[in-house]
Amino acid sequence: MKSNLGKRMTIINPASNYGTVTIVGVGLIGASLGLALKKAGVVTKVLGVGRSKENLDQALKMGAIDGVVDLVEATKQSDVIVLCVPVAQMRAAFEVMEPHLESRTMITDAGSTKGDVILAAKEVLGKKACQFVPAHPIAGGAQHGASAARADLFQGKQTIICPLQENSPEDTALITGFWESAGSAVKKIGVVQHDAIYAAVSHLPHILSYALMASVVNSEDADQKLGHVGAGFKDFTRIAASSPEMWRDICLGNRAAILKELDQYLLIVNHMRKLIAENDGAGLEKLFNKASKARQDLDASE
Amino acid sequence: MKSNLGKRMTIINPASNYGTVTIVGVGLIGASLGLALKKAGVVTKVLGVGRSKENLDQALKMGAIDGVVDLVEATKQSDVIVLCVPVAQMRAAFEVMEPHLESRTMITDAGSTKGDVILAAKEVLGKKACQFVPAHPIAGGAQHGASAARADLFQGKQTIICPLQENSPEDTALITGFWESAGSAVKKIGVVQHDAIYAAVSHLPHILSYALMASVVNSEDADQKLGHVGAGFKDFTRIAASSPEMWRDICLGNRAAILKELDQYLLIVNHMRKLIAENDGAGLEKLFNKASKARQDLDASE
């Protein structure tokens, strides 16, 4: 199954078996991936690497993983390694893996940002970077940890692949098939494009949502306000229940694209502020109309 | 049922009948109210006043109203009048009603802002302002118009009453019972408090949501971005599908409180921008933690 261009030996069985798969970071995404792969019957064994014994025990109990190892041991044993840790921990993971990484082993990830992860991979893995096919499964939710995992988390969802120049077509196809076997529809996008798109439609909304909760919580009459929230407020702030650690890393990892989107957003908000302060009803209605129509079109296009 | 303190004659039947009720503005809220009151069996007749023949015909067809009249005729005939028009139209409605307003008639409203509506009522109705008991049903959704109406729209939801100094306890109790018969749980809050609370938990989120849709739609790669939205973006922007006209009026009607909340919000967002630009992971995590915990507490308190 793997490319045999004189670069690496073919070890993994053809088509539907990825052999020994290690999941590094067995949280919502990692544990769900383990459940999905085992349910699809495409793995011989799933190993887990992580920081929290309690969480790993939970993952074992659920059958998301079959055993727990450290990352060095996992690197030696695995055919595929999936990095599901917060993006700021990817560099350290590559550093531990690199000396033990054999040519048969493929690596992929589940990071919400790609530019920073790819930079770390190229700097640390060097020539072995061709063994890393970057991915971003668009799945998950506000809950975190193995206890929230589901085998169908990726069903009907998209996984973005951002192949490196160094990746062979065969290796890209292998990792594409890997994510497809978990239930995803795979789509290829360039890394710069990926980071700009997700800055706008995912990273920025999370920041704005956190900011609204923080603003309400910090106000004098916070309790009163929180006692009168409706469906609109709850919809808007739902994503503020997400993992602070993960989102801290995303903000720093995709800093340039996020700041660009945030600055564009602030231009619009400040313009709205001006229209409100100046009593410009026609201006407000025009802006709201454009936004409202676009949001309705979004629902219609589903 | 009405106070008989020598001010007005008691005409309305005691307890469970509000007589002839007119709904001015037969949209989602107005038509739903008509359906709810009729289902509860607490009215003799429901009349509708509005701008759009098509919408009024729809309301008639659904049984939300029994007849259509103009506002002058409605004022003469009604025991209770409910103003369900956008808040910027309330003043004009009071102006049409005032000369024909008899002492037996109570008025209430469904406006999302209270300070501006109350000011208009006091200026236009003068001594008759005691016949107006301001209300704000916290119900509804992104859809608008009679065709979206439901008899159970207010079931289990709150209606805020902001009694005027001029309202007698008996009249406040009557209007409280009126909204309760539609299915609401009624709560009394002072008008300044109301406008501050709803600026924070309703008006500001709508503005921020409209701004995000506008920002994405205006960008160079808008189509790409809109092609990759996930559940988070959709949750965040759901309220941007709301009625632009209604939200224009709310922004202008509650301007002072909204600008206050918006400016506090912008302080937080600009602080987050600074943390991101300066790579301050610890600062970001601390802020996200506080917000995340508050959001989880909100779910837990339901």
UniProtKB/TrEMBL annotation, chains A, B:
A single GO molecular function term of this UniProt record: prephenate dehydrogenase (NAD+) activity
Superkingdom as given in the UniProt entry: Bacteria
Cross-referenced Gene3D superfamilies: 6-phosphogluconate dehydrogenase C-terminal like domain (1.10.3660.10), NAD(P)-binding Rossmann-like Domain (3.40.50.720)
GO aspect biological process, one term: tyrosine biosynthetic process
TM regions (residue ranges): 15-37
Keywords recorded for this protein, A-Z: Membrane, Oxidoreductase, Transmembrane, Transmembrane helix
Prephenate/arogenate dehydrogenase domain residues: 19-302
Protein name: Prephenate dehydrogenase/arogenate dehydrogenase family protein
Species whose genome carries this gene: Polynucleobacter tropicus
